[in-house]
């Protein structure tokens, strides 16, 4: 690693902390707390820059290891394996800096730092909890780096390393009270994009896709935090403009210019690091949009104001964008269409029913999270159960029928296709696709969330809703891949058994909900008190029926798809098999001649 970059990271962290601690108002005073002092006001942003920068350095070394040519059996190259030593070092730096941020966050919110306040603060102050998780993830990456031998394991370690800043970003306090769900998602996307951008720049790659994500996150966060007319009149607006200018300079620097490789190798990491500093400064400066704003009960509990009525038209027309799953649905649809067009340019066939199934699955994912269904789901249990079944059943079934993995392998370059095939054949992926594991995972999302009280404990947290939706969707994909996947090893009778086992799960869960004498999450729903749900228990019983009905729709779809597939296979089988009982004629004669 270039020593100048290390000095640059330490200097950028110290400069950011010094400027914010010396000139910016203390964030604690904005919340009516006593002044935190220079140590907290300067140390917290400095340690935040150091933690995210160290994570970017670790990501850069992991990227270099993944992209280096692999040896036989997918083993890392000697240079890639040597880079894991740097991954271990920078992950340990990230862990220490993240722990410092967690402690300083507790001190800022409590006014003192003792052993008891640290334990209590880390448990009940979400930003401190997020940074503690970031430290634990970094420590785990540092411990696992010494055991990684293959590039596939390095890819897994890279994904785990990105989970650290994601935990910190999703639990951070945003600058938009009215819509802190959207603002929080924008902050998380921007943080991950900047960390990955800096890591890629350090590894000698441009990762230009990070720039649109970071720009979109900055624009969305600014739109909720500062009015357009106050961009030049407030410190937050000026920092936002400075960040946009840096993004533009970074985009220009990332353009392919072979004659300026040396300048690009220095300017791109410098601009990326400066963006990380501005991003940290924006989290420490008060936003003018919510000055004097008093959050309503719905905003406090859900993150935004729920409408005062709910009809079928409202469920269809009252859209609210989900920046995570809604964007995922749109990007997946665009990439799929691009892959199909590439195959057509090569004059390779691709069934239209596959394209229709994939685009329908993306549409279901978009509707379940960004339409009125997604808007009402956090506050109405019956809508939540409808969303659950769409995410866990119908969307995964349609996506698996679209065969996106096959399309990706066929439309990619040979080296990329080989790596995709190797990733899908990884032990972790094969374990997730085991029939028993997939069935137990689906059972866990039903009986491990609602009867255990976990759902009630997570209802008020936006990050928890993202985790639950991701769990519903991923377990559904694993299950449908077992039932409908072309490369699944389960025989036809085994697939039918899986279908009936899933039907039994849905029936048992619906029966449990119908027989329950009190609402799940009763305290939350009665505190929310939406006027169109006068009886939470009746709404819960409606949700039980919806879960039963909507849960069986993808099961029926799976059965129809399996029956059609078996019928097609049976029609092809006689043509592909030799005519064993033909006593005269060319088929039997050719077979005998070949044997002789």
UniProtKB/TrEMBL annotation:
Spans traversing the lipid bilayer: 46-66, 87-108, 128-149, 156-176, 182-202, 209-229, 235-255, 267-287, 323-343, 355-377, 389-408, 429-450, 462-484, 496-515, 542-563
Pfam family, one: Caa3_CtaG
Topology versus the membrane: Multi-pass membrane protein
Main location per the UniProt record: membrane
Subcellular location: Cell membrane
Coiled coil (residue ranges): none
Keywords from the named record: Cell membrane, Membrane, Transmembrane, Transmembrane helix
InterPro entries: Caa3_assmbl_CtaG-rel
Name assigned to this protein: Cytochrome c oxidase assembly protein
Source species of the chain: Pseudonocardia eucalypti
């Amino acid at each position: 690693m270039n020593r100048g970059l290390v000095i640059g990271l330490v200097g950028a962290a110290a400069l950011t902390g010094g400027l914010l601690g010396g000139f910016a108002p203390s964030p604690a005073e904005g919340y009516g707390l006593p002044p935190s002092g220079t140590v907290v006001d300067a140390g917290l942003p400095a340690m935040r820059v150091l933690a995210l920068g160290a994570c970017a350095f670790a990501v850069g070394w992991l990227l270099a290891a993944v992209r280096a040519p692999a040896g036989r059996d997918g083993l890392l190259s000697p240079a890639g394996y040597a880079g894991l030593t740097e991954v271990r070092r920078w992950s340990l730096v990230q862990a220490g800096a993240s722990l410092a941020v967690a402690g300083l966050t507790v001190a800022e919110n409590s006014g003192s730092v003792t052993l008891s306040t640290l334990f209590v603060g880390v448990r009940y102050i979400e930003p401190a909890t997020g940074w503690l998780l970031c430290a634990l993830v970094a420590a785990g990456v540092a411990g696992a780096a010494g055991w990684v031998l293959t590039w596939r394991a390095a890819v897994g370690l890279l994904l785990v390393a990105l989970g650290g800043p994601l935990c910190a970003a999703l639990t951070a306090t945003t600058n938009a009270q009215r819509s802190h769900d959207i603002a929080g998602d924008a902050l998380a996307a921007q943080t991950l994009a900047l960390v990955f951008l800096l890591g890629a720049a350090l590894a000698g790659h441009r990762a230009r896709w990070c720039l649109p994500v970071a720009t979109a996150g900055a624009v969305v966060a600014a739109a909720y935090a500062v009015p357009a007319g106050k961009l030049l009149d407030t410190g937050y607006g000026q920092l936002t403009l400075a960040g946009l200018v840096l993004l533009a300079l970074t985009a220009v620097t990332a353009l392919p210019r072979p004659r300026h490789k040396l300048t690009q190798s220095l300017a791109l990491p410098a601009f990326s690091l400066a963006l990380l500093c501005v991003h940290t400064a924006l989290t420490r400066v008060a936003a003018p949009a919510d000055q004097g704003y008093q959050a309503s009960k719905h905003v406090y509990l859900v993150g935004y104001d729920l409408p005062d009525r709910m009809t079928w038209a409202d469920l269809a027309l009252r859209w609210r964008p989900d920046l995570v799953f809604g964007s995922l649905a749109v990007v997946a649809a665009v990439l799929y269409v691009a892959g199909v067009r590439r195959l057509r340019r090569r004059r390779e066939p691709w069934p239209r029913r596959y394209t229709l199934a994939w685009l329908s699955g993306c549409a279901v994912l978009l509707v379940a999270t960004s339409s009125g269904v997604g808007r009402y789901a956090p506050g109405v249990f019956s809508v939540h159960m409808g969303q659950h079944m769409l995410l866990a059943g119908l969307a995964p079934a349609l996506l698996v029928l679209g065969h996106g993995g096959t399309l990706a392998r066929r439309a990619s370059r040979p080296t990329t296709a080989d790596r995709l095939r190797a990733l899908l054949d990884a032990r972790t992926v094969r374990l997730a696709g085991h029939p028993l594991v997939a069935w137990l995972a689906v059972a866990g999302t039903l009986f491990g969330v609602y009867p255990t009280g976990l759902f009630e404990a997570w209802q008020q947290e936006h990050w928890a809703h993202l985790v639950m939706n991701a769990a519903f969707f991923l377990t559904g994909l694993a299950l449908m891949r077992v039932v409908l996947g072309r490369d699944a090893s389960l025989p036809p009778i085994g697939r039918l058994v899986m279908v009936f086992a899933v039907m039994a799960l849905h029936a048992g869960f619906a029966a449990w909900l119908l027989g329950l004498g009190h609402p799940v999450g009763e305290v939350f729903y009665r505190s929310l008190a939406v006027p169109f749900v006068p009886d939470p228990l009746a709404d819960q019983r409606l949700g039980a029926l919806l879960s039963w009905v909507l849960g069986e729709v993808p099961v029926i779809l799976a059965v129809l798809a399996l029956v059609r597939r078996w019928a097609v296979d049976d029609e092809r089988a006689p043509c592909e098999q030799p005519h064993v009982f033909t006593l005269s004629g060319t088929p039997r004669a050719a077979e005998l001649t070949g044997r002789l």
